[in-house]
Amino acid sequence: MILSRNWLNEFVDLKDITDKEFNDEMTLSGSKVETIERPDENLKNVVVGKILEMKRHENSDHMWVCQIDVGQAEPVQIVTGAWNIHVGDYVPAALHGAHLPGGVKIEKGKLRGVESNGMLCSLKELGMTAEHDFPYAVITPAALLNDYHPLDPAKPSIPADIKPGNKVYGPVLCGRVEAVESVDGGYNVRVNDGTVTRAAKTVCSNLHEGDLVAYNTKRDTICTLEDLHAEQKEFPHCIADGIFVLQEEDAEPGLNMAHILGFDDSIVEFEITPNRPDCLSVIGLAREASATFKRPLKLHTPEPHGCGGSIADLVDIDIEDGDLCPRYTARMVKNVKIAPSPRWMRERLRNSGVRPINNIVDITNYVMLEYGQPMHAFDFSCVEGGHIIVRTAREGETIQTLDGNERKLTPNMLCICDEHKPVCVAGVMGGANSEIVGDTAMVLFESANFNGVSVRRTASALGMRTDASSRYEKGLDMMNTIKAVERACELVELLGCGEVVDGVMDVVAKEKAPTVVKLEPDKINALLGTELSEDLMREILVSLGFILNGDDIYVPSWRGDVEHYSDIAEEVARFYGYNKIPCTLMRGETTRGGFSEQQRFDRAIGGAVRALGYDEIITYSFISPTYYDKIRMPKDSSLRNSLKILNPLGEDTSIMRTTILPSMLEIIARNHSYRNKSARLYELGKIYLPREDGLADEPKYLSLGAYGDGVDFFSFKGSIETLLHELRITDVKYVACTDNDSYHPGRCAKVYAGETYLGVFGQIHPLVAANYGMDTEVYTAELSFDAMYEKRGDIPVYQPLPKFPAVTRDIAVVCDEAVTVGALEESIRRGAKGLLKDVSLFDIYRGPGVAIGKKSVAFNLVLRADDRSLTGEEADEDVQSILAALKADHDAVLR
Amino acid sequence: MKQQLEAIRKAALDAISDAGKAEDLEALRVRYLGKKGELTAVLKQMGKLSAEERPVIGQLANDVRAKLEANIEEKTKELADKAMELKLKSEAVDVTIPGKQEKIGVKHPMYQVLDEIKDIFVGMGFEILEDREVELAEYNFTKLNVEEDHPAREWSDTFYFTEDSSILLRTQTSPMQIHAMETRELPIRILAPGRVYRKDEVDATHSPMFHQIEGMAIDKGITMADLKGTLNEVVRQLYGEHTVTRFRPHHFPFTEPSCEMDIQCHKCHGAGCPTCKGEGWIEVLGAGMIHPKVLEGCGIDSTVYSGWAFGMGLERLALGHFKISDLRLIFENDVRFLEQF
Prior knowledge:
The complex is a heterodimer.
Chain A: E1 2-4, H1 5-9, H2 19-28, E2 32-37, E3 44-56, E4 64-69, E5 76-80, E6 90-100, E7 104-105, E8 109-111, E9 114-116, E10 118-120, H3 130-133, E11 167-169, E12 172-183, E13 186-192, E14 197-202, E15 212-216, E16 221-222, H4 257-261, E17 267-271, H5 282-293, E18 316-319, E19 327-334, H6 343-350, H7 359-371, E20 376-379, E21 387-392, E22 398-400, E23 406-408, E24 414-417, E25 422-425, E26 429-430, E27 443-449, H8 452-462, H9 467-472, H10 480-495, E28 499-500, E29 505-508, E30 516-518, H11 521-528, H12 534-543, E31 547-549, E32 552-554, H13 565-576, H14 597-611, E33 615-616, E34 622-623, H15 626-630, E35 655-656, H16 661-673, E36 679-686, E37 689-690, E38 696-697, E39 700-707, H17 713-726, E40 732-736, E41 743-753, E42 756-764, H18 766-771, E43 778-784, H19 785-790, E44 807-816, H20 821-831, E45 836-845, E46 854-863, H21 872-890, E47 893-894
Parallel strand pairs in A: 18-21, 33-36
Antiparallel strand pairs in A: 1-17, 2-17, 3-4, 3-6, 4-5, 6-7, 6-10, 8-9, 11-12, 12-13, 12-15, 13-14, 15-16, 19-27, 19-28, 19-29, 20-27, 21-24, 22-23, 24-25, 25-26, 30-32, 31-32, 34-35, 36-39, 37-38, 39-43, 40-41, 41-42, 42-43, 44-46, 44-47, 45-46
Chain B: H1 2-18, H2 22-33, H3 38-44, H4 53-91, H5 109-123, E1 127-128, E2 134-136, H6 137-140, E3 167-169, H7 175-183, E4 188-197, E5 209-220, H8 224-239, E6 245-252, E7 255-264, E8 281-290, H9 292-297, E9 305-313, H10 314-322, H11 328-332, H12 335-338
Parallel strand pairs in B: 1-4
Antiparallel strand pairs in B: 2-3, 4-5, 5-9, 6-7, 7-8, 8-9
Helix pairs in contact in B: 1-2, 1-4, 2-4, 5-10
């Protein structure tokens, strides 16, 4: 909501309140101010000037040197290239040091050797348009023959040496301007056609003594470019642009232009919450401001005089569905004269962010801004049968809306119709078929109440959210329709743009009883933590328009958001001041709080993988269904059954992931494509497995991903080993996995803790890597949080430190290539007789001395007894037992 | 004999003084003082001396021995010191050469901020709750007093899994309030952070997935003053003891009265600057007293119990905290970005 503070002052006088105070106080009472702008800050040292004298520039074919009275002792000399000005005109003069909108600064200087102490301004240079802001200043140029530049210099349509009396074509002769006199709405020009001097009246403002014009002797008019069927570039200086020539009564030399333009205002933009549509109006905000600053609210009761007649004789109104249209109010205006609205109205509209159009349209917008009640004006001659029917659209009906688009209507859209067709989409936009145009004579003003949800759905379905619909959709005050339509008619009379027919058509299809809430001061204080007096509460409520009858609070009709004592508490708190409510810490029973064991485990995982050098990432929970193909997930995999978003933003974010792998690969690939040399990443994220009941199981997984410097299978596996060790997960086994299509079949392992499956890791299959545009080795792991949590180790129990020395023995055994180190290790542990404390691989050898198809694997064994120093014989006995087990299990023999 | 001893003393002392290595000294020690050494050899001839001469020569011999021993020791030490000095010199390094670093991974900047907030609330007796993101509309909207035809429910704003709009991706962490109220014993103090989803196109300030932090306290006699007191305390712990806050009225369907909390801009102290977009204040969260309708809907007697709740956007907080200019960086996960934190 954009508010003009000048307009607000009409209802509550806050002229002495600074913008800063206004901002702070309104914000703290609940009307959040986003910005406050002073348009005059962008317009400095631009004043009204009166042209005293004009001379042609001696070194230019198109410039004028003007002497301007700017209210100072001496006139100011300004050079201009514009042709639409005359001696006696009032014009905007930007003096030396002036600022114009758009950050333009004006400095004095010389133009082709002649001093110019400023600039005369066009409306565009002042940030406005003639069409909307000052309709009287629209410029119509005449075609000046002395400005003629032929398109083809070899074939001019008009000879360069044309003289008065020469024929241009048909009845059009060349004439010389002898004198120009400004008169109301145009100019009286004397033109010599070579033989006689003729008097012509014209709206063309670019004529000066000595100019050659094309004079139509038959019609006694001076020809425009259009009359000559000429192109603009043939008359480069005869343009519909020029200096803004003022017609304001208060214009006098030296007056600040900001005043003429309505820039001496503060324009406030509010963020209004959706529960307060009443504040989308000047009056609504005035009510808040009045309560905020404790100043009287001055409301005005509109009273159009009327001109006799009766609206009831002219129009019938029927509402078919009272739920969609609880109330429809209308008044009629006849003998309408469409014209621009007056400056004060255009200013207020413009300072409220609305473009002025013409008096009738401007009045509907003005009333909408002032009362918050959208209005619509129909050209009544287009309402067939004089019958307004408020009904939903019929199958197949269409309407061309005011924006020129043809709209297909559906049967749930509410429309305003005549006996044959829709003439308006209710609460959204009017139809072109009943648009107010220049010759509209009878206008029907509609001021109706529509169902907010219905308006919102219709506007959204048609893709046209308008000022009106965005108000209606929040639910408007039913009691506002009459006041608004009365105000519109009052303005019609004030502006003199028509005669108001007596009588109001007011159809109420659905009544709404006022809401009554009990005033319960103790409950309010208990909720707020305050000790406010009942008197203060009553005072606040009354200032907002609530009516108190004993303890009954009658909620005003515009406050649909208030229905409960907690709502009343908010009203009291808002105007007592949220910031005056004390700050206390909660009393009562204390709660224990703290992190759960899962949450602590989660933190432990994060801490461990970060210590291993992995950075944390956060990825989207939704992915593209094509990602399953990208990771080569089997077509029949149950993980392809994902929850599908029916209205996704795009395919890339359309299903809920059932695996965290593609998310990790996306990020790995992105880092790779950014030419980051290496990356080690982790995420603790959820996957979403569809459930019978339509919801999802959402287990958490740890994903690890790595590529680049020093990353290979065993360094990556080492990270996982270290992590699991850190989590005190024991009995960890790694089993080769050759059937996971996402991974390299020879470099992939499943991880178990005892019988519990923890997850999988390995090198990403080169085909998968290629799908992600990578030709490097990429390693990933997917480990179940729940499984790791289940197998987490207990708090460790202290083990006494060894008192006796250990004996170490190195053994190298030769076995078949197919036997894994893991299997050998298992046999070693199985064969040991209880003295083996540690076993570690230190070499694998293939080559001379070892048969082809075999390998030699060397282990370092640490043997120790807890209660004595071990003898060499005892150790050897154990080693023999271990060798026997290796032989028995794998036919592995000592080398 | 006397001359012999004097000769030995002189020769030995000269030799010791000239010795350049520890081994030379050892050889000298053996040569003069060893069992078969020269001094010993002289002493073996003591028997030939008269009774008068014996103590005199004996004394002299002992003096010579003591002197030789002392000088050998002194020279040994001197050589050791010299050797150490040389060794240290040869081992000197250029300390400005960079060290060998171990790379430690980083927590995602957003979760760094989240963990800080969790710690603050845990310290105030709150528990951390996590729950489902695929949610029933009933929990995401209905039980939170969001009407059937509220615009937030539109398919243009919320992601749905079912045609009847009954199952969705939660658009806020507020359904956690309902889950907590329905399943937990009173009093309740919980913090519920998590992922939420809204149908917003990705840009510098929007993402279809983002994070919220929900907080709630329900007990007998909880007031809006408690809400203010608690949140002020949290903000002070997060932003510093001297942080200035203000509370503004606002609107949420599931709280009444509702408010938004601003902190005074730390750069301009309220005067208005580019950091706070000229407002002087930076919005941090929305909060309010839990609407009695919501309490009653979860079977809690609103005439006995009251409570407050707040919700804050984690992304905006983290962006502000680290002065990150674009939300997309958060989900892009470029290591050059991550490793700055």
